[in-house]
Write a structure and sequence with these properties.
By secondary structure, the protein is mostly helical. The protein has a domain of 117 residues.
Length: 419
């Protein structure tokens, strides 16, 4: 009659060895009992040995039955109140979930535990020393995860979402007031003067480059008498010389009337951009035309591809990404988080409130998940998992039961002989 507890096929080798030790010890006690019975009349000590072996067998058998009854029917006989864990797995799951909810997923318990944790300090040390062994492994693991997630996403859909979000932000941007404010600020600080000077010089160069075209236009529009007398060429040269002189005077004289008129126009434009609804509508229409332009759409597509490529490159090589300016910024943030007590307290308080809030909001959901997960397991699964966890200790119980039972039997026999 095999007194095995039917160990799992994937049990730990040490568990199987302890199972064999416990069963072997029980069989050894049986053999010792038979030997003591055989030599019972040959030596007075044989009675003590027999009493020890007999009680050890009883203790070992009792503990074997108790251990086996937890997980299955002993000898596959459906004895009442055996196979306790498979029969009560749902109740065990509910009890485990209730235990977690009552002792761990309670906001004040989580808050008390979080007060002992320095989240900001840990994050600060990680950022300040990204070359450490643990930090390096975390960074490598996080980078691989980020790269895998980014590559696994539907690129067409993800790109469409990113480009759509960019277009939406650009379309919702009210450019006119921003342009007006920028122009107003530039004029107050005098930054418009070089721009105006360059515009005047550009106009002078353009006029000089196209002097022949102006002469041709005057010649074509002049009458026959003017062409015959050559007055058309003199008129064209006078126009060109007059315009060049005007541009030169505007460049050297900051108070030239035409220059001041141009400045007045710029000030008026800045005011209209900021305050006039009609001008803002016209700027918005121009903005929408630019966004709808195919060239602009191609630029946005290229911008997304460049951003995605940069993200993948940084994710695949976090050391290179952290070696540049980004790395210096992250290290500085880490130093600040690690050394600034006030900042550390703020971050730790935020982390504590976030975790406590998650516990209060999702604690019941976690408990329900645990309960439903255990309920979803089949009886054999939960039996195997529990037996794999405590199987070695249960075999020690069998060994202890055998030895303690033998010692108790020996003590009773000794008292009986003495009395």
């Amino acid at each position: 009659m095999a007194l095995t507890a039917q160990p799992m096929t994937d049990a730990d080798p040490l568990d199987r060895r302890m199972h064999m030790v416990a069963t072997g010890l029980l069989l050894a006690m049986a053999a010792l009992f038979l030997a003591a019975r055989w030599f019972a009349d040959g030596h007075p000590a044989a009675g003590f040995v027999q009493a020890f072996a007999e009680a050890a067998m009883v203790g070992g058998l009792a503990d074997w039955f108790a251990v086996t009854a937890l997980f299955r029917h002993p000898l596959r006989i459906p004895i009442p109140h055996t196979a306790i864990i498979p029969k009560n797995k749902d109740r065990i799951g509910d009890a485990l979930a209730t235990f977690l909810r009552s002792n761990f997923l309670v906001p004040y318990v989580v808050a008390r535990r979080m007060r002992r944790l320095d989240i900001a300090g840990a994050v600060g040390r990680f950022l300040a020393n990204p070359d450490g062994a643990v930090a390096g492994r975390l960074r490598q693991g996080a980078s691989r995860l980020a790269a895998d997630v980014l590559e696994a996403m539907d690129q067409e859909r993800l790109g469409g979402m990113a480009k759509g979000a960019l277009v939406q932000r650009l379309s919702g941007l009210n450019l006119a007031p921003l342009l007006g404010q920028a122009l107003d600020a530039a004029m107050r600080e005098g930054r418009h003067e070089p721009v105006l000077d360059n515009a005047i010089r550009w106009a002078a160069r353009a006029l000089d480059d196209h002097a022949d075209m102006i002469r041709q236009m005057v010649h074509e529009r002049a009458g026959a008498i003017m062409r015959f007398t050559g007055l058309d060429e003199k008129l064209a040269n006078a126009i060109i010389d007059g315009l060049l002189k005007l541009l030169m005077e505007m460049e050297v004289d900051p108070h030239h009337p035409v220059r001041l008129r141009a400045l007045d126009g710029l000030e008026r434009l800045a005011w209209r951009l900021q305050n006039e609804a009609e001008m803002q509508t016209r700027v918005a229409a121009i903005r929408d035309e630019i966004i709808a332009n195919p060239a602009m759409q191609r630029w946005i597509d290229g911008l997304w591809e460049q951003g995605r490529t940069a993200l993948l490159k940084a994710a695949r090589d976090p050391d290179a990404a952290l070696a540049g300016r980004l790395g210096e910024v992250m290290k500085q943030v880490g130093v600040s988080m690690e050394g600034d007590a006030r900042l550390k307290a703020v971050i730790n308080r935020f982390a504590r409130r976030a975790v406590v809030g998650l516990t209060a909001s999702y604690g019941d959901g976690i408990v329900k998940l645990v309960s439903e997960t255990v309920r979803g397991w089949d009886a054999q699964t939960i039996t195997d998992r529990l037996e794999r966890t405590v199987g070695r200790d249960l075999q020690y119980i069998r060994v202890n039961g055998t030895l303690v039972g033998g010692l108790v039997g020996l003590a009773i026999h000794t008292v009986d002989v003495v009395m």
